[in-house]
Task: inverse folding
């Protein structure tokens, strides 16, 4: 029953995601697809309150199943993980425009052959992605590791937007699978693998939305789990070359003989907390510390794991104000803060209460 | 009320921002001058692609024009002439990299600004100057002719991007 419920919710999420297709983005001219997609688009763009209720229902359902899986285990976990990857691979990146940014930057680099650290997409009027890309008035936001990697999906996409979206998500899915393998290699525990792999925030932000934080964290975790300096340092540098956040792991790379994953967790959590000073606390930044929570042994009433789940639930709710209002401003920031903080505060109260009781 | 607002949009003056030249960078004599010149040469490899190359050459043309202007004001005519020639060298290669209207508009604005600066210099500077270094032979600097040549170069690039 549990695997079926989980997969059903993911299928619903996948279908729901196609309501978020930008109105300027034409995935295909296929009339069957357009007929099926129109009611979803109407739901998201014109029936925002209903869209919001559907989102919170799916997310709450996924977290409920996730917690049940963690507490009772899941015999068919391999089939569930494979189904999860396949369903979300072909879903639409609903809650972010970052993947279009990746695509446009790759196009600037490989199609137009311009330096993306000098030339913004808006400076190329013939660039087709401008119609549905946000932040096109910025130079490349990611490091050279990611830029080089995007050659693969850019080439596989062959200049067509939908295949390119799928190709980018495929690369991200590959790194998601590599992450699961790494976690199993380090912990030898399926529970730890599922802690990361079936976390709804990981599913929405990595597999659905295609954020590249998973690439950064796979390289960082790979660096920390090896004893070989010839592998550790280049892997860590490659990780920094994706997004830069893992630079904070510098002491673990150079000063510790055997890096502590708990310290890594708190270091990445610190960077996560500093994110609002640069821009905003985006939900996908949770991947940074979630990665290390997955390799710290899960014990009964483990603070790190309970805290991480509470934070990831709060972050998953951050999309709600935008889904309800289709605006980022107004009361949006206040609601986003409330939705993030309340679950965390509730968890902290519950944890302290239980600690005192025992 | 609607008509008044509409009228305001029609008769309101157009907002226009001058093309902005950079602040002066390191000048000859500064310890960092040679390093900055080396950096300028190395940046050529970083600025790949037509749009990036336009930015590179236009940026350096602007920089060396500002350098020349300051040096002319301080009567360092020999160094100023060298800076102006470098500015010209970067400006004259621009047409080969211009591919779209955004670049054309940028180069047009830059040309206008450069011409304005050069006209100010022509008005203030001697047409000819004999540079007499202490331990070397004197040389006659054809300042007027050089500046007029630079102005003519900007005009021809401007005409190229306009047509």
Result:
């Amino acid at each position: 029953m549990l695997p079926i419920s989980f997969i059903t919710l993911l299928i619903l999420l996948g279908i729901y995601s196609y309501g978020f297709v930008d109105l300027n983005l034409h995935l295909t001219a296929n009339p069957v697809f357009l007929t099926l997609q129109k009611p979803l688009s109407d739901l998201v763009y014109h029936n925002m309150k209903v869209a919001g209720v559907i989102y919170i229902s799916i997310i709450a359902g996924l977290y409920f199943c996730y917690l049940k899986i963690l507490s009772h285990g899941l015999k068919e976990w391999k089939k569930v993980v494979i189904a999860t990857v396949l369903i979300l691979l072909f879903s639409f990146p609903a809650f972010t425009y970052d993947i279009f940014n990746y695509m446009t930057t790759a196009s600037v680099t490989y199609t137009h052959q311009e330096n993306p650290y000098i030339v913004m997409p808006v400076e190329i009027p013939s660039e087709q992605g401008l119609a549905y890309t946000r932040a096109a008035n910025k130079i490349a936001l990611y490091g050279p590791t990611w830029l080089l990697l995007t050659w693969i999906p850019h080439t596989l996409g062959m200049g067509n937007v939908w295949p390119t979206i799928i190709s980018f998500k495929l690369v991200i899915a590959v790194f998601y699978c590599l992450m699961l393998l790494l976690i199993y290699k380090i912990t030898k525990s399926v529970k730890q693998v599922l802690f990361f792999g079936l976390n709804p925030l990981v599913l929405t932000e990595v597999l659905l939305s295609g954020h590249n934080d998973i690439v950064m964290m796979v390289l960082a975790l790979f660096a920390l789990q090896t004893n070989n300096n010839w592998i550790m340092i280049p892997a860590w540098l490659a990780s920094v070359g994706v997004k830069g956040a893992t630079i904070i792991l510098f002491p673990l790379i150079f000063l510790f003989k055997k890096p502590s994953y708990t310290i890594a967790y708190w270091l990445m959590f610190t960077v996560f907390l500093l994110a609002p000073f640069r821009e905003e606390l985006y939900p996908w930044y949770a991947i940074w510390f979630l990665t290390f929570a997955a390799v710290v042994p899960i014990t009964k009433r483990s603070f790190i794991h309970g805290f991480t789940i509470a934070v990831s639930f709060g972050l998953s709710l951050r999309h709600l104000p935008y889904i309800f209002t289709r605006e980022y401003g107004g009361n949006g920031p206040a609601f986003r803060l409330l939705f993030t903080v309340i679950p965390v505060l509730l968890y902290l109260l519950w944890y302290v209460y239980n600690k005192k009781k025992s | 009320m609607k008509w008044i607002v509409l009228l305001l949009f029609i008769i309101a003056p157009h907002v226009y921002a001058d093309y902005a030249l950079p602040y002066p960078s390191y000048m000859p004599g500064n310890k960092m001058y040679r390093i900055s010149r080396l950096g300028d040469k190395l940046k050529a490899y970083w600025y790949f692609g037509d749009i990036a190359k336009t930015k590179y050459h236009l940026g350096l043309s602007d920089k060396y024009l500002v350098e020349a202007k300051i040096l002319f004001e301080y009567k360092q005519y020999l160094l100023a002439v060298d800076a102006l020639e470098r500015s010209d060298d970067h400006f004259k290669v621009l047409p080969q990299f211009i591919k779209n209207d955004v670049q054309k508009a940028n180069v047009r604005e830059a040309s206008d600004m450069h011409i304005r600066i050069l006209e100010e210099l022509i008005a203030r500077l001697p047409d000819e100057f004999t540079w007499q270094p202490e331990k070397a032979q004197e040389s006659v600097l054809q300042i007027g002719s050089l500046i007029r040549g630079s102005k003519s170069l900007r005009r021809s690039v401007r005409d190229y991007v306009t047509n």
Summary: The mean pLDDT of chain B is 91. Helices of chain B lie at 2-11, 33-46, 50-73, 77-92, 101-124, 143-162. Residues 50-73 of chain B form the longest helix (24 residues). Residues 130 and 140 of chain B are 4 Å apart (CA to CA).
